[in-house]
Amino acid sequence: MSASPIPQWVFSCLDQYSNCACGIRIVKQLGKEGIIEELEKRGYPCELEIIADPKDTSEFPEDGTYIVTLKTTKPTKKVEEE
């Protein structure tokens, strides 16, 4: 079984609420595109929104809120973990 770099609680939130505030640590670790790609590989097509003070122009604002939201609430084929 391959371990996902995304914690299981993120998938649980997406299943239950169709969105998840995943935090700066996960987004920094995988990168903005990397987290989207990893979620999509697992059957969760998402968008990433970063809510932060407009004055903070850094790529990863420390006080930002990092939210992944499902593009659709229709079930997609999930990749089975090996």
Task: Give the gist of this structure.
The protein is an alpha+beta fold and 82 residues long. The protein contains 3 helices and 3 strands. The protein is 33% helix and 18% strand.
Explained architecture:
There is one protein chain. This protein is α+β, with helices and mostly antiparallel strands and 82 residues long. The chain has one domain. Helices cover 33% and strands 18% of the residues. It is built from three helices and three strands, in the order H-E-H-H-E-E. The protein has a three-stranded antiparallel sheet with strand order 1-3-2. Helix 2 crosses helix 3. The longest helix has 10 residues. It is globular and about 35 Å long. The mean pLDDT is 87.
Indicate the topology.
Elements lengths: L7 H10 L1 E3 L2 H7 L1 H10 L4 E6 L13 E6 L12
Helix pairs in contact: 2-3
Number of helices: 3
Biggest beta-sheet profile: 3 strands, antiparallel
Helix content: 25-40%
The chain-level structural class is alpha+beta
- Gross morphology is globular
**Oligomeric description of these chains:** single chain
Feature tags:
single chain, 82 residues, alpha+beta, three-stranded antiparallel sheet, 33% helix
